[in-house]
Amino acid sequence: MHRPIAPLLCISLLSAGLILTGCGNDNPPGDEQPEAVLPPAETPEETAPANRDIVEIRQAADAGNWLQVSDLSLKKLLENPQNVEARYYLGWAYAETKQWDKAAPELKQVTELDPGYTNAWSTLGWVYAEQKKWPESIAASKKALEQDPNLPYAHANLGWAFAETGETPKAIVEYEKAVALNPKLDTAMYSMGVAYCSTGNPTKAKDIRQKLELLNPDLANKLDTHLKSDCKQQAG
């Protein structure tokens, strides 16, 4: 089940750079690799009352103050090492600051303490992808989606991992699901266009390019590179 977390700020991610303007990076699977697809922690529904012991941590996360999130979470964990919420926030903060080697063990411990912590599985899938641990990323993302199939970032990260392991058809399926759930997920859309190019389907890639132009012109231009090279070769 979902645990309350601060509203996703679509930070970094792949900072449009891929999977979403502000929620992913700009080098999706294909020749150029995406960084990650945003904090896989999709914004969960609020629960009331909020966990009062982590309200301050949530506020810091909401503001994108990851150093404060780390400090406050560590303080809570000194008081109670079994505080699952605090440990999740610590792992998330490490991920947001690209400290992948620190983020992974914290998030893994959360899933061990509470196997039903969906956001932890989703974020762990993102972190493993950043570490290029594709089998682990696939397993974590699938676990998150087993618990909640409506997580666009988990689908996008799963697609990324599939693309990196040569399973492009499966990657396209996941990108399609991600975009269906979040039509503004520009990095997932870009990665899907690259994937269609690699499978020799320039028509689909061009359709995606037109939609992407409205969301993120920079990524649309990046996709043009594939349309003029990969897709052209495949189509020819």
Question: What's a quick, concise take on this entry?
Answer:
By secondary structure, this protein is mostly helical. The protein has twelve helices and no strands. It starts with 54 loop residues before the first helix and ends with a helix.
Describe what this molecule looks like in 3D.
- It is built from twelve helices and no strands.
- The protein is mostly helical.
- Helices cover 63% and strands 0% of the residues.
Return residue spans where pLDDT drops below 50 for at least 5 consecutive residues: 1-50
Strand tally: 0
* Class inferred from helices and paired strands: mainly alpha
Give the amount of beta strand, in percent.
under 5%
Give the overall silhouette.
Answer: elongated
Gyration radius from CA atoms, angstroms: 18 Å
End-to-end Cα distance = 48 Å
Mean pLDDT: 82
Order of H and E elements? HHHHHHHHHHHH
Query: Major sheet: size, sense and barrel closure?
Result: none
Percent range of helical residues = 55-70%
- Give the count of helical stretches: 12
